[in-house]
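Think of the structure tokens as a kind of shorthand, similar to the way a musician reads notation: each symbol stands for something richer, in this case the local conformation of the backbone. In the example below we present two proteins back to back. Begin with the first one, reading the sequence and then the tokens, and try to describe in your own words what changes along the chain.
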Amino acid sequence: MLHYDSVQTSSALAFPQLVAALETMFTAHCEVPLRHNHAITDKQGEKQGTLLLMPAWLPERWLGVKTVSIFPQNAQHNLPGLHSVYILYNAQTGKPEAIFDGDSITSRRTAAASALAARFLSRENSKTLLIVGAGRVAELLADAYLSVRQIERFIIWNQTHSKAESLAARLREKGLQAEAHQDLAGAVKEADIVSCATLSTAPLILREWLQPGTHLDLIGGFAPDMRETDDACFADTSVFVDTEEALMKAGDLLSPIEAGVFTPQQVRATLADLCRLKYSGREHADEITVFKSVGSALEDLAAAVLAYEQLNC
């Protein structure tokens, strides 16, 4: 079985190719069971983290599974909040073919999925991207979005402002126009696209800040107790999800549903619907679109297959 570290895995997942691989996989007949979600508690029964098991397979071709551990308080230990491993198998024999750094697959496919959705849902002339967060996925969003839109200006906001400044500086080192803002409301009002990649458990983005034509991308919240928006962001906007599982997992959706301001039937389409051209996406320039993702094992499989093919061609 081949082993690929984070550098090797990331090098095989350039965003133009990865976005295309995700689109292809979303149109294929990929089997994706619901993920296993387990709370990890300490000796006193207090939740410390979450363990996810995410399988997917293409019949007679590829089978894969990712294990993910999410510990939000890891910043106190100077560690990322998420760690994962991905194993790719031959789906005809069950033979393990390769093991990849799952963190690289997770972060890059997550950013790529947001970029893929934005190709359908953001205005083609979008020039300003607000990145909310400064972690591993947030770091990748500039490159991901540049693969689908001609972004000219990047605004960074993070609860710890020094981290936003550091990310903006790294983007400037790449030759991009990037700046850190402390006024989140003002930054949202200036942005064509707002992409949130945080582990927040309280709303950050308010509906009253969203301007006509904005595309809001919600990446971070994957559990019922996680929030990046207020309920009103779903009351009068065009809502899309990566998969229907988002309606069962995401606090950003569960809260407005419970409050009665949004119903599951109001979801316009899934990312698979968009890729299969069952729904056209954005319908007019002033439309406010919202894309809520919780991640899919289908995306992991697409990334792992791409990495395997790139590294073994």
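Once you have a description of the first chain, move to the second and do the same.
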Amino acid sequence: MKRQAKIEIWVGAFVLMSILALVMIAFQVSNFSSFKEKPSYQVSALFDNIGGLKVRAPVKISGVVIGRVTNITVDPRSFKARVSMKIDKTYNDLPMDSSASILTSGLLGDQYVGIDIGGEEEVLKNGSEIELTQSALVLENLISQFLVKFSDSGDK
């Protein structure tokens, strides 16, 4: 009976470690990078089209994640999409004339906000708005433009 109890304890420990490993993998996959909130500041930008951008999508500079999208709403004045982002305080020296683009990871991957650095001396602060934006490229629009141009060239 003692040998049976040892085996059951080892199996229980293995199952517990497996469950903990699965929980950690789930947190990594779901974009939870840490359990505590890092100091950050809020900026926003207006886009004509955000494509498939989602809340919690990364904000990147040169491929490095510097923040996350926190909210997506429609601006009541311009009827454009207002994307609010939290940027880590370690990147508090981004120039005011920086631009934001909605980019895609790979051909059909998730979308994220890419920041291109400007050259102005004044920097973005909490509540600032990024003026220069480039909307998402929608694959359906590109295909329809290609088909229209392809059909026009075939008539001549």
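Compare your description with these statements about the second chain. Strands lie at 40-47, 58-61, 64-74, 81-88, 99-104, 111-116, 128-130, 132-134.
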